[in-house]
Amino acid sequence: MPPAVLVKHLQVSYGRQPVLRDLSIEVPEGAFFIIIGPNSSGKTTLLRAMAGAVKPQQGQVEIWGEPVGHFSKKALARLVAVVPQRVVTDIPFSVQEVVLMGRSPHVGWMGLEQPRDLELAMEAMTFTNVAHLARRPLPQLSGGELQRVIIARAICQQPRLLLLDEPTAALDPAHQVNIMDLMAQLQQERGLTVVMVSHDLNLAAMYGEQLLLLKEGKTVQSGRPADVLTYELLEQAYGCPVLVDTNPLGQVPRITLVPKRFLGPPF
Amino acid sequence: MSWSGLPLARRLLWVAILGGVLLAISLALGMSLGSTPASWRQNLAALLDRGGPEDILTTIIWRIRWPRALLAGLVGATLSLGGLVFQALLRNPLADPYILGVSGGSAVGAILGLLAGLAPFPGVALLAFLGSMCTLLLVLVITSGEPGGRKGSLLLAGVMVNAFCSAVIIFLVSITQDARLHNILYWLMGDLSMSAPNQTTFLIYFLLPCFLVVLCLARPLNLLLMGEETALYLGLNVALTSRILLVVTSLMVSLAVCQSGLVGFVGLVVPHLFRLILGPDHRLLIPACLLGGGSFLILCDLVSRVLPSQGEMPVGVITAMVGAPLFVLLLMRSR
After folding, report:
1. Residue from B280, B252, B239 nearest B76 by CA
2. E strand or H helix at A2, and its extent?
3. Residues A109-133: pLDDT tens digits?
4. Among candidates A72, A76, A84 on the partner chain, residue whose Cβ is nearest the Cβ of B230
5. pLDDT digits over B9-58, tens only?
6. Cβ–Cβ contacts within 10 Å for residue B273, how many?
7. Which residue blocks in B144-217 are alpha helix, DSSP H?
8. Which site in A57, B66, B186, B332 is 20 to 30 Å from A166, CA atoms measured?
9. What is the dihedral of CA B98, B101, B103, B104, to 10 degrees?
């Protein structure tokens, strides 16, 4: 069985600015894989490359053994769903209509949905707890509701691989845990492969089975949370001092940021 | 049950029925009202009895008013659909074939074709199509690469292209000896009275396939509304779909402009009206814009014909008087 995602010597630049430099990683099927790293380290670009949205200068991304470029857009969308960082929210489609858009790679051009599509949408909305909002127009949703709607749309696509770009970024702690629990549930109960970009190191430590720490488009370290989230590696990647101990909940690292005034006198 | 709770197929049926009725009423009105007074009884008789060539009213209705109402309907449907597609493709509520300068480009092409003595088809139509594509590409090039400020710069680019095209039109029409071209108002404000009836039937064969293509792309248009990246993730070949839509829309707009001149703001008024009523789903909006846009221009043409005026008022005067205030309103609301 080939891995869900295989990235081979991937090189991507925007103009002259190299974003990913000779990056190689492997995401096994059914993994909960979290990509961390400082701003502009290439996390989002890596995710977009996995989704076939950027053309690499060199190297390639394979999804279950097949290069991403070989898929038609429709075939790829039946296999890979993406929850992007920013979504359009000013078009007054109803929640149900937005979730039903997830059926696009499965229905014909003119695109009248069948009863089966409506069932799948309802199931996805129930799973992410937005079924009661089905008629609500998109612009009236809160941040947490919106994120759950977009995730429901991705589920409705019936993908085998789910890519998420900072899904918890603008949410309060309760909603963050809620979204992460949903992802863990999808991964464990339905065998979905989940790849997520995150800025929250503690969430990454608690939920990620495998982490990838990126810096300037290159791998700093990849592996289990305990191997990646070490004081030395984090300081090297982020350039700021952190405190790493063990999370009281279990055998995962806990990361504490250190304000300047705790660092002692400057001289 | 509320409107949004109805299944899509049911809503589509309602749009088709109500739109069809609206179009039928507009056509009936457009054919029975005019400068020749007649009672509704006489009108009805003449409408139903196509045969009698000796009856003056029958002749007026079927030889003069019918081709004109048909043309108005086709042009109205085309411009409304064009506006709808541009608004979704450019994700800009103010886009419209006229405002973007696409209509102006077609008119310049058409006039050049007429000056060169080309046949109405394919010569003039082809030049009109080239003109519309050139202006569209120009506007897109001017506004590319600035995702943030696109709304404003798109409008500015359109206004400039439009002003330039208008100047070229007036210039060309002024220097020519050709009597056919002397009606400047025909080109600048739009006029449905100059077109030859046989060209109208000809127009149908080209416009209907264009309508069908856009109708088939209703769902992709919905996806494009959610942003190009999201549309891609939902399995849409964004580049190909956008190109097809741009070419087909420019083609049908330029064909309409060849027959009617620059009728402005139809593509702005009609889609926005239906968006308010039906919501953003293109699977409903496309049929609604076709039927409703046709009706709208038939009625505008009727108003321009029956209002007392010296000679005849161009239909573009009526559409601009409705459309321009709406445009300002939308502009103020989008800030």
Report:
1. B252
2. none
3. 566 788 889 999 999 999 999 999 9
4. A84
5. 889 999 999 999 999 999 988 888 877 777 777 777 777 765 566 677 77
6. 17
7. 150-175, 184-189, 197-216
8. A57
9. 120
- Residue A53 CA: distances (Å) to CA of A58, B210, B230, B231: 15, 30, 10, 11
Residue B43 CA neighbour count, 13 Å, CB half = 15
Least CB-CB distance to B225: which of A91, A102, A157? A91
Question: Number of helices (H) and strands (E), helices first, in chain B?
Answer: 15, 0
CB of A135 within 8 Å of a chain B CB? The answer is yes
- How much is the pLDDT for B52? 60
CATH number among 3.40.1180.10, 2.170.190.11, 3.40.50.300, 3.30.930.10, domain A5-262: 3.40.50.300
Partner B contacted by A77 (CB < 8 A)? yes
String of DSSP letters for B90-147: TT-TT--TTTTTHHHHHHHHHHHHHHTT--IIIIIHHHHHHHHHHHHHHHHHHHTT-S
Cross-chain Cβ contact B232/A81 below 8 Å: no
Give the model's pLDDT for residue B145.
Answer: 57
The pLDDT tens digits for B126-152 are 888 898 988 888 888 877 755 444 556
Here the ipTM equals: 0.91
The secondary structure of residue A131, as a DSSP letter, is G
Helices (H), A112-230: 115-127, 143-156, 173-190, 201-207, 225-228
**What is the distance in angstroms between the Cα of B107 and the nearest Cα belonging to chain A?**
33
Paired sense of beta strands A17-27 and A161-165, if any: unpaired
**B283, A73: Cβ pair inside 8 Å?**
no
Angle at A212 between CA A206 and CA A214, to 5 degrees: 125
- The encoded tokens of residue A98 equal 């937005």
CATH number for the domain formed by residue range(s) B6-31+66-333: 1.10.3470.10
Which of chain A's residues have a Cβ under 8 Å away from the Cβ of B235? 73-78, 104-105
Residue of A nearest to B12 (CA): A112
Q: Which of B6, B91, B234, B286 to mutate to test the interface with A (most CBs of A within 10 A)?
A: B234
Residues whose CB is less than 8 angstroms from the CB of residue A223 and which lie 6 or more positions away in sequence, other chains included = A210, A211
* pLDDT tens per residue, range B150-190: 556 777 888 888 889 889 988 888 887 766 666 666 677 77
Listed by start position, the domains of chain A span: 5-262
Does the beta carbon of B218 lie under 8 angstroms from any beta carbon of chain A? yes
Give the number of A-B residue pairs with CB atoms closer than 8 Å: 84
CA nearest B223: which of A103, A263, A79?
A: A103
Whether B212 shows a pLDDT value over 70: the answer reads yes
Provide the mean pLDDT of chain B.
84
Q: Give contacts of B232 with chain A, Cβ < 8 Å.
A: 51-53, 73
Predicted confidence at residue A145, as pLDDT, reads: 92
Q: Do A88 and B226 touch (CB under 8 A)?
A: yes
